[in-house]
Amino acid sequence: MEETRRRRASPRALWPEVESVILLGMSYAPQGDPLALLAEASHANVSVYARHRDYHDLIKGRLKLLASWLAARTSGADLKVFVDTAPVMEKPLAEAAGLGWQGKHTNLVSRELGSWFFLGALFTNLRLDADRPEANHCGSCRACLDICPTRAFPQPYLLDARRCISYLTIEHKGHIPAEFRAAIGNRVFGCDDCLAVCPWNKFARSAREAKLKAREDLLAPKIADWLALDEERFRLLFSASPVKRIGLPRFLRNLLIAAGNSRDAALVPLVEARLTDASPLVRAMAVWALCRLDPARLAALAHLKRREIDAQVRLEWAAALDSAPAPSLAP
């Protein structure tokens, strides 16, 4: 399976009049070690790209300014901007434009920016001279392949999205398969492992754009604080963040997996409260998480299974109760 199931269109399929495509990159490189928080099991880890303002709005605004500048200096120029908002083959186009090369993790790598940069595309009917494509500089390195927690790379340059934590926690709308939950750890939105270990990042400077500086409240948030979120507080907290688009139920699904992996007994009351959540996604993961944190308590609440109407949640209850000890009959 390729890195995505979305169909990617050629530039002319999107706009028949296009003659040239301009690709631009903007660094969002973090200041510290992006993997350090993975060792803090009671804290939630958000992917580096989502710790600041939504990049779509920022980069699209910059591209529109550039498009206006070009249009004002040329005759009859027409321009269109894209920032991951259409089926544009950004990475192959950026490689052809000389911005970098697609590494073994399928992401673009730059000798100047490492792995940490966003891409934007500017389509125009102007005929411009082409830049030279960038050569591949991965060599024999396989750091990005070996670090993947779920073994999502069946071979170099090929990603199985069905096993990718970024896909599972962001794009996947259903229940996350049990085989991947422990490996997810405390990653509640995305995964940076394959990007973070790339040796080319030693040349990457921290993001200079102020709007791409990480928000303090997203650097090391406590799982306990976020498990108590309701819809209104979720939307307020992530109003200008990419996290908002997955919605509260999927976000809580991810948080409950992190809670179950934390082994933090203090989270038991918060997890238990989600056993009766309106969303089956949330209820199912609450069952799984409570079984990991306090299987005896889950067994004592087995009567909730009899009220459950969702088939998938009932399966979670069955699997959990099979592994949980029977409740004590002592007074």
Structure description:
It is a single chain. This protein is mainly alpha-helical and 331 residues long. It has a domain at 221-325. 37% of the residues lie in helices and 9% in strands. It contains 15 helices and 7 strands. The chain has helices spanning 11-14, 55-72, 90-96, 143-147, 165-171, 178-184, 193-196, 223-227, 231-237, 247-262, 268-273, 280-293, 295-300, 303-307, 311-323, and strands at 20-27, 45-46, 79-82, 101-102, 108-109, 117-124, 187-189. A 3-stranded antiparallel β-sheet has the order 1-6-3, with helices on both faces. Helix 12 (280-293) runs parallel beside helix 15. The longest helix is centred in the first third of the chain and has 18 residues, at 55-72. It is elongated and about 75 Å long. Mean pLDDT is 91; it is low at 1-7.
* Average residue-wise pLDDT: 91
Q: Helix share of residues?
A: 25-40%
* Classification by helices and strands: mainly alpha
Provide a count of the helices. 15
Quick one: overall form?
A: elongated
Number of strands: 7
Strand content: 5-15%
What gyration radius follows from the Cα positions, in whole Å? 23 Å
Distance between the termini: 55 Å
Order of helices and strands: HEEHEHEEEHHHEHHHHHHHHH
Assembly status: single chain
Q: What about the largest sheet? A: 3 strands, antiparallel
**Sequence of strands across the biggest β-sheet:** 1-6-3
Poorly predicted segments? 1-7
List the helices and strands and how they pair.
Elements: H1 11-14, E1 20-27, E2 45-46, H2 55-72, E3 79-82, H3 90-96, E4 101-102, E5 108-109, E6 117-124, H4 143-147, H5 165-171, H6 178-184, E7 187-189, H7 193-196, H8 223-227, H9 231-237, H10 247-262, H11 268-273, H12 280-293, H13 295-300, H14 303-307, H15 311-323
Helix pairs in contact: 10-12, 12-15
